[in-house]
Amino acid sequence: MFDVIIPTYKNLEELKRCLQAFENQTYKEFRILVCVDGPAKSVLEYFSAGKFNFPFKVLTHRNGKRNGRNATRNLALGYLESKYLLMFDSDIIPASDLLEKHLALLKKKDCISVGEVVYTNASKNILADYIQTRGKNKYKNGQTIPSYYLATSNVAFESQYFLNAGGQDPDMVSYGGGDIEFGYRMEKMFHLPVIYNKEAVGYAKWSKSLDFVLSQMEEFGAVNLHKIKSKYPELREVFRFHLAESKNLKSRFVRFFLRDTIGTAVKEMVPHAPRLIRRLLIHYLFFWSIYKGYVLNSK
User: CA–CA distance from 297 to each of 123, 219, 224, 291, 293 (Å)?
Assistant: First the structure.
């Protein structure tokens, strides 16, 4: 009853742990579709040598190159057979009842079930601590959340919607914004409520450094944010496009505090700040990095 799409890119050991956890699901009616981005040799060897208690299929790009997460998930479009679809990341460990919890909500209501991702090192890692407070995490279990908080790391809905939407946007190859674009497009096409299903849990460990994440945010601002603006100019309030372009007093005031000298100083403050202040500083740094990439690519 579930097809589970799991994209993977050069992280075979994490993928192994993810798949081993799926063997322990309380709900057994599912099939795994492993979608490989880039070279597939190691993944194909692992599946040819292993034995699993669930059916599976390994899907690869014909060119054997990296095509991006969106295009990689779209490899499953021609192979979906089940009523429901779970999109899940290969570096997350599903709780044993994850599919059961998603199914319970989907049977109750035609919706998009956005599951929880718990970072097990949030008490020790400042970025994991920050991420656990953002996006859907600002809402309670069972609440309807904005469509742009849809996260394909752990989300379930009827397969027909993915098929009718034509999958994710394959032109969004670089980092960031793919889930936002997909969630908003799903809302426009199908008007489905997006519900935070905190009971459908996956566990992960945050490993990215602050500098690396800020570089990803800058890449998002430079590339995919421009694509989102071109497709959906009405999302200006979500991304504050106008702050980078408007000449009014408020926008100029905000831009004053987004200068590199201030951003660099804030980054140096993060390790020493109290927890609540630290979260605010990281939030500023995310916005600063996105803005910087967006402006640099606007010139």
Answer: 36, 10, 11, 10, 6
Same domain, 174 and 276: no
**249 membership: H or E segment, kind and range:** helix 249-256
35 and 150 in a single domain? The answer is: yes
Domain that holds residue 215: 210-296
Per-residue pLDDT of the chain (299 residues; tens, 9 = 90+): 999 999 999 899 999 999 999 999 999 999 999 999 988 888 888 988 878 899 999 999 988 888 999 999 999 999 999 999 999 999 999 999 999 999 999 999 999 999 999 999 999 999 999 999 998 999 999 999 999 899 999 999 999 999 999 999 999 888 888 999 999 999 999 999 999 999 999 999 999 999 999 999 999 999 999 898 888 888 776 666 666 666 777 667 667 677 889 999 999 999 999 999 999 999 999 989 998 898 876 65
- Angle, helices 275-296 vs 224-231, to 10°: value is 70
Query: Among 117, 114, 103, 181, which residue's Cα sits nearest to residue 144?
Result: 114
Which residues are bridge partners to 94 per DSSP?
A: 202
Residue 155's SS3 state is: strand
From 178, 204, 230, the end of a domain falls on: 204
**How many structural domains is the chain composed of?**
2
Q: What is the DSSP string of 175-209?
A: SS-HHHHHHHHHHHHH---EEEEEEEEEEE-----
**Same domain, residue pair 189 and 265:** no
Distance CA 55, CA 93 (A): 18
Point out the domain boundary residue: 145, 180, 204.
204
Task: Please give the model's pTM, rounded to 2 decimal places.
Answer: 0.91
Please check whether residues 95 and 109 belong to one and the same domain: yes
245 plus 198 within the same structural domain: no
